[in-house]
Automatic annotation (TrEMBL):
It comes from Camelimonas lactis. The keyword Transmembrane helix applies. The chain crosses the membrane at residues 59-76, 96-118, 139-161, 186-206, 218-239, 245-264, 273-290, 302-321, 342-362, 382-407. It holds the Pfam family Acyl_transf_3. InterPro entries: Acyl_transf_3_dom, Acyltransferase_3. GO terms for cellular component: membrane. The keyword Membrane applies. This is Peptidoglycan/LPS O-acetylase OafA/YrhL. Residues 21-41 have a biased composition (Basic and acidic residues). Residues 62-404 form the Acyltransferase domain. It comes from the Bacteria.
């Protein structure tokens, strides 16, 4: 399956020989189901949760937003798969939305939720152990399982994935979330979709060290390290890997999320009368795809942050600060699309947001299988790319939700009980 990235400054497109089943999402992942003793759920960007709670609110809008971000990534990958493999040579049509900006949304949410979910751990005895165990339990099992599945397919049927067998160093680096250059020079893991998790784990490592500090100092310390890294990467020119990978401007999304979390903890709220227009403005700014147009296109470092990161931050802020207790109460009620259409739709997408980690990691396998079906059926109309994307979203959503409910959630519950977290 073709791997491609929407951001040339984060990872180049992987086309031609050696392509991998995992897509390079635009450099990510969201709130998780892990609940601390004080009622907040543990979070991460492309990594999911049940509806995170804070101050009597479910933050279901935030979960729904994660579902939309995951769907945006799937749409991008479906279009890439169709155009690169089903219809090679056809020009890529102009996109109505920069779908890979969904990763910016994931990373902002990750920073936001890490502050809420760990607020009682900062500077507390035993906080470091709890933080590390929660992060490892949340991220490792499913990602290691999908990476192992990918390697199994590579060994048994390499032609299916158009991929050669990686060497042991790349395999080890993939399991350890360490950016390691492949033969083509790209610092991508074996299952290349996991490059976003390499960013997540780098962020969690910094937070784990900072959790020994009081919360505000911890946020400042992590923000300072990430910000200085980006500044050094911009001024010092191309750095050797993995430093080039770790100092890309995308990591500033984590900083934006961290400060949103501090503001939320101080009781900041926004009236829905302002939140909804603010969200529409954020979506409009993203749809303009400003980093591809002057003057932002002339700023490879600041352009993506100004054009993607800041609108994503505004969108997350509107979802988090604009959710009222009344809406929270309605969303957790029973689903009734006739009498409670809005709350029911939010509830459905919030539950899909719970499964967004499984959806994110599984969808390349589903897209590859769909590609084979479309080839056998001989689809070849001008609508095929659109139909392929629609089918991919539906199939991936169903598959990801089933994987979450039947496998991921039970395994996580068992591991948390065993670890006492």
């Amino acid at each position: 399956m073709q791997s491609s990235s929407a951001r040339p400054d984060t990872s180049a497109s992987v086309q031609g020989q050696g392509s991998h089943l995992g897509h390079d999402a635009h450099p990510g992942q969201a709130a998780r189901a892990e609940k601390d003793p004080h009622g907040a759920h543990d979070g991460g960007a492309a990594v999911p949760a049940t509806h995170p709670r804070a101050d009597g609110r479910t933050l279901a809008l935030l979960q729904a937003l994660r579902a939309f971000a995951a769907i945006a990534v799937i749409i991008y990958h479906c279009h890439s798969e169709a155009l690169n493999w089903l219809y090679p040579g056809q020009p890529r049509p102009p996109e109505i939305f920069p779908w890979m900006a969904g990763v910016d949304v994931f990373f902002v949410i990750s920073g936001f939720i890490i502050v809420l979910s760990s607020r009682k751990l900062f500077g507390a005895p035993g906080g470091f152990r709890l933080f590390v165990m929660r992060r490892l339990i949340r991220v490792l099992p499913l990602y290691w399982a999908m990476t192992s599945l990918f390697l199994l397919v590579v060994l048994l049927a390499p032609g299916v994935l158009n991929s050669g067998v990686p060497d042991w160093r790349q395999i080890l680096a993939s399991y350890l979330f360490f950016p390691w250059p492949r033969a083509d020079g790209l610092a991508l893991p074996v299952y290349s979709l996991g490059w976003t998790l390499n960013y997540e784990m780098m962020f969690y490592t910094l937070c784990a060290g900072a959790v020994l500090l009081p919360r505000r100092l911890a946020v400042m310390a992590v923000a300072l390290v990430l910000g200085l890294g980006v500044l050094i990467g911009a001024l010092a020119g191309p750095l050797p890997e993995p430093f080039q990978f770790w100092t890309r401007p995308l990591v500033l999304d984590f900083i934006f999320g961290l400060f949103l979390g501090l503001l939320y903890g101080r009781g900041v709220a926004i009236s829905p009368l302002l939140a909804w227009p603010g969200a529409l403005v954020a979506v409009a700014l993203l749809a303009m795809d400003l980093p591809t147009r002057p003057p932002l296109s002339d700023w490879p470092t600041l352009g993506p942050i100004a054009g993607y990161g800041l609108p994503a931050t505004l969108l997350v802020a509107m979802a988090a600060f604009g959710e009222t207790q009344k809406l929270s109460a309605r969303v957790v009620g029973r689903i009734d699309f006739f009498r409670r259409p809005f709350a029911s739709v939010v509830r459905v997408f919030a539950e899909l947001g719970d499964a967004s980690y499984a959806l994110y990691l599984l969808h390349p396998f589903i897209i590859r299988a769909m590609r084979q079906v479309f080839v056998m059926l001989g689809f070849g109309t001008w609508m095929t790319s659109t139909l392929f994307a629609l089918a991919g979203v539906i199939a991936s959503s169903i598959g990801g939700w089933l994987l979450y409910r039947l496998v991921e959630a039970p395994v996580l519950r068992w591991l948390r009980r065993r670890a006492g977290v």
